[in-house]
Amino acid sequence: MKNFIDDLNKAFESRVRLGIMAALAVNDTLDFTALKEYLDVTDGNLASHIKALEKEEYIGVNKTFIDRKPNTRYFITKQGKKAFEEHITALEKLIKSQK
Amino acid sequence: MKNFIDDLNKAFESRVRLGIMAALAVNDTLDFTALKEYLDVTDGNLASHIKALEKEEYIGVNKTFIDRKPNTRYFITKQGKKAFEEHITALEKLIKSQK
Question: Does B57 contact A at CB distance below 8 Å?
Fold first, then answer.
């Protein structure tokens, strides 16, 4: 029991952060609006969780312009992908312990 | 995506609460010390998460005496088992979305 708890990543305890990581793990990049619609959360809520994941360097941001309008796209980093995969593995262990 | 996020239970976001529920789902009852050793957490940390789960009525408490010493044992409630199973199902969906 101790092991799978330890292997769960505190950075991914929030549902919204889990959702952001899951979305970015299967999409090369997503912009703020796409993430927001995907997860059905408020701007403020999404922004604070994005900030937390950026601080951990689990996601990165690309700022460009499309038709002179700013376009901010997020992507999962290499270490973010690794950390998320480890978290998923720990969740799988938890689930198996229940079967 | 929206669905599995919504189906994740906010009460189980914390690793410690997940651990308490997982432990009580597979053991009829556990006392405070057993849970503490199982999860390798401090008294204060465990107590606060137990309190939160009791408030949700996901776990219950039985207070008895063994050799005149108080013995407090925790168990999962019927609605706790249901809520935890739904949470596990939502986690399974999240994991499947990553494969």
Answer: no
**Rounded distance between C-alpha atoms, residue B95 and residue A89, angstroms:** 9
Pick B5's closest partner by Cβ from A19, A25, A91: A19
Per 3-state DSSP, what percentage of chain A is helix, strand, and coil (rounded to 5)? 65, 20, 20
pLDDT band at B99 (very low <50, low <70, confident <90, very high): confident
Q: What is the DSSP letter of A28?
A: S
Q: Which two tokens stand for residue A68?
A: 């002179």
Task: Walk along chain A (99 residues) and give the pLDDT tens digit of each residue.
Answer: 455 688 999 999 999 999 999 999 999 999 999 999 989 899 999 999 999 999 999 999 999 998 999 889 999 999 999 999 999 999 999 899 887
CB B73 within 8 A of CB B29: yes
Given a contact cutoff of 8 angstroms between Cβ atoms, the answer to whether A52 and A11 are in contact is yes
Cα separation, A41 vs A2, in Å, equals 33
CB contact under 8 A, B2 and A98: no
SS3 A27: coil
Q: In chain B, what are the domains?
A: 2-97 (1.10.10.10)
CA dihedral for B31, B76, B28, B35, sign (positive or negative): negative
